[in-house]
Amino acid sequence: MNTTTSDAVLVKDYINGNERALEFLVLRHKSRVYNFIYSKVLDGDLSEDIFQDTFIKVIRTLKKGTYNEEGKFLPWLMRIAHNLIIDHFRKSNRMPKFESKDKEFDIFSMLKDSRRNAEKQLIVDQISADVRMLVEELPEDQKEVVYMRLFKDMSFKEIAENTNVSINTALGRMRYAIINLRRLVVQHNIVLTE
Amino acid sequence: MPKLYAQGSKKMNNFQPKKETINFILNYSKAMHVVKTRNMLIEVHKN
Q1: Is residue B9's pLDDT more than 50?
Q2: CATH label, A117-187, candidates 3.40.50.300, 2.60.40.2250, 1.10.10.10, 3.30.70.20
Q3: Distance between CA A157 and CA A170 in Å, rounded?
Q4: Choosing among A38, A54, A67, which should be mutated to test the B contact, i.e. which has the most B CBs within 10 A?
Q5: Residue A150 carries which DSSP code?
Q6: ipTM of the complex
Q7: pLDDT > 70 fraction of chain A, expressed in percent and rounded
Q8: How far B23 CA sits from the closest chain A CA (Å)?
C-alpha cells in the first residue's frame, strides 16, 4: 500500500480491517473535499464540522458493508459532502438565529438579497443534474425533442424541421417524454422541488 | 476579470482541514465496530 494505490484497493483494504487504508484515503482527498465544502459555506469552523461528518458517514457505510463499489469513491465522497451541505442550509433555515427586538428598525430587512442564496443555488443545481440524468434515460427520439425544446429553447416548428418529422409528431414525442419523465421521477423517488 | 477569478480560485484551494479533525476521524474509525446480528447491524464504539 502506497500513495499510488487506487481508491478502490484502499476501500477494499479498509473494509477488510486495515485502518491505515483510511488514513491514505483521508489524506488523499482532504484538500478537495474541504475546499468544496468551504466554497459553499464560507465558514472555517462549519467546514470542519461538515468535513468531519462526511468522513464519519463514509466510515459507517464502509464498516456496515453497505458501500456499493463501482470504482467511484471520490464522486461518492463528494456527493455525501454535498448532501450534508444541503442538510446544513435546510436546518439553518428552520432555525433562525436572530430576531430583532426593535420593531421599527431591523438591519436584516435592509440586507435582503434578491439573488439565490447558496442553499437555493445548490438545490437548483441538484434538480438540474437530476433532470439531465432522467432525460438520458429516455428513448432517443424523445430525448432529442426534450433537449431541443428545454435546453436549446427551440420552437416545435424548428424541432420538426430539424428532425424531419411533422409538428404533431414532435409534440407527441414531447408529450410521451414528459409522461416517461414523470414515471421515472416516481420510480426513482426523486424530489424535484425548490 | 478572468485574472481576478483565477486568483480567487487559487487562494480558495489552499484551505486545509485541521490536524485535530483528521485525527478525530481516524480515531473514530479505530473505535467504531459493527456487530452483525441476525436481523440488524449494531454500531459499537470502544473508548
Answers
A1: no
A2: 1.10.10.10
A3: 8
A4: A38
A5: I
A6: 0.74
A7: 82
A8: 9
